[in-house]
């Protein structure tokens, strides 16, 4: 019996570790970006309920719950990656892969409640599919960027095909929102030096990640919030990677924001310095 339990544990560990690697999460289509969570959820139906469960707050958060407004930090206007210099206890919230009905909207209302602004890196075909939600993101005052057209793994494309994906994604987001999409994030964070250079020389700022919430794993909202806070405490500051396509992300966001506020963090709002110039050139 003991051996059997060990085997099951080993198999589960194997499944989780393969999800962390590129082979499972990064095979290059929009659909696969949803796959790891679904795979684990269906293997263990009890976990499905976790995705909508509220997250318990820690005692420090209970004690300072009534502290409205103090989470919102400065606005940082940037024209290149090197301009993004965060002080200790400063974070940038980023949401990738949307817009997604219900989930993006829920996240927008939570951000509004906490009076903080985030950056949404939209997938082109998602923005095309849900233009009204993409516009809600802009109307709420958040910053937007693109994330390719179909969530392609650009390391597995030719240079020209990768550029076409990036341009198509950016154009889709701009055509839907009529707003600057001056930021870019590589799907699966799969970049190359040459592509980074191309993105920068074409008026976009690549957004890297310092704190990966790993909200794409099929774990509970509480586990995501705890992992994010632990990583943040170790790093002191940073750009946080989240996804507005997962229920667990929306479920844990109030707890994460409450905890950030309780521990004295500030959410910095990013702005691209060339936004109006870039839009003017596109609509001339
Ligand atoms: Zn993504």
UniProtKB/TrEMBL annotation:
Belongs to the polysaccharide deacetylase family. One of its GO terms (biological process) is carbohydrate metabolic process. One of its GO terms (cellular component) is membrane. It holds the Pfam family Polysacc_deac_1. It comes from Neorhizobium galegae. Residues 1-20 form the signal peptide. This is Chitooligosaccharide deacetylase. Keywords: Hydrolase, Metal-binding, Signal. One of its GO terms (molecular function) is hydrolase activity, acting on carbon-nitrogen (but not peptide) bonds. Residues 89-268 form the NodB homology domain. Is involved in generating a small heat-stable compound (Nod), an acylated oligomer of N-acetylglucosamine, that stimulates mitosis in various plant protoplasts.
